[in-house]
């Protein structure tokens, strides 16, 4: 789990400044009306962080909790398109630093406890934390228009 925590800390450190450097005009552009803008993708990452915090905590005291969410509804209802971009970046950073703190407190035994996703597939906290980093990088590369990183 230590390697995953260090990886997440490095992602936050390396990508925060890059996110701050994107002009507002770029954040609000939607490639197509039904597609998310960069601002909405960042909002999705905030929602993902919140839901994963819940998974990492609840799976430690409940047996295989089911924690899923409708990502399109969350993005639409949070209205990230009209949210101040600087606040979104700060919130994204703070939530991810909080995830690092939560993960640091998880014992090796607890890291093996499971959580069910919305599709009812069960994963260990340890697997979810590593997968969270991959998901994060996938979307950060979309926002920053970097080489795509495949994510299922």
**What is the spatial order of strands in the main beta sheet?**
1-2
Mean pLDDT level: 97
Order of helices and strands: HHHHHEEH
Shape: globular
Number of domains: 1
Tell me what portion of residues adopts beta-strand conformation.
Answer: under 5%
* Proportion of helical residues: 55-70%
Question: What is the CATH superfamily classification?
Answer: dinb family like domain
User: Could you give a short account of the major beta sheet?
Assistant: 2 strands, antiparallel
| CATH topology term | Four Helix Bundle (Hemerythrin (Met), subunit A)
Distance between the termini: 22 Å
Report the C-alpha radius of gyration, rounded.
Answer: 15 Å
Low-confidence stretches: none
Count of helical regions: 6
Q: What structural category arises from helix and sheet content? A: mainly alpha
CATH architecture: Up-down Bundle
CATH class: Mainly Alpha
How many strand segments? 2
């Amino acid at each position: 789990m230590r390697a995953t925590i260090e990886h997440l800390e490095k992602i936050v450190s390396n990508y925060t400044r890059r996110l701050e450097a994107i002009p507002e005009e770029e954040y609000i552009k939607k490639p197509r009306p039904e597609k998310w803008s960069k601002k909405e993708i960042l909002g999705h990452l905030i929602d993902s962080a919140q839901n994963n915090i819940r998974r990492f905590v609840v799976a430690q005291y409940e047996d295989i909790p089911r924690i899923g969410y409708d990502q399109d509804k969350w993005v639409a209802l949070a209205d990230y398109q009209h949210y101040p971009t600087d606040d979104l970046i700060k919130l994204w950073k703070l939530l991810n630093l909080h995830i690092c703190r939560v993960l640091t407190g998880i014992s090796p035994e607890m890291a093996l406890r499971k959580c069910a996703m919305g599709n009812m597939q069960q994963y260990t906290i340890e697997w979810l934390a590593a997968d969270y980093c991959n998901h994060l990088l996938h979307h950060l590369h979309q926002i920053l228009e970097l080489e795509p990183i495949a994510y299922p």
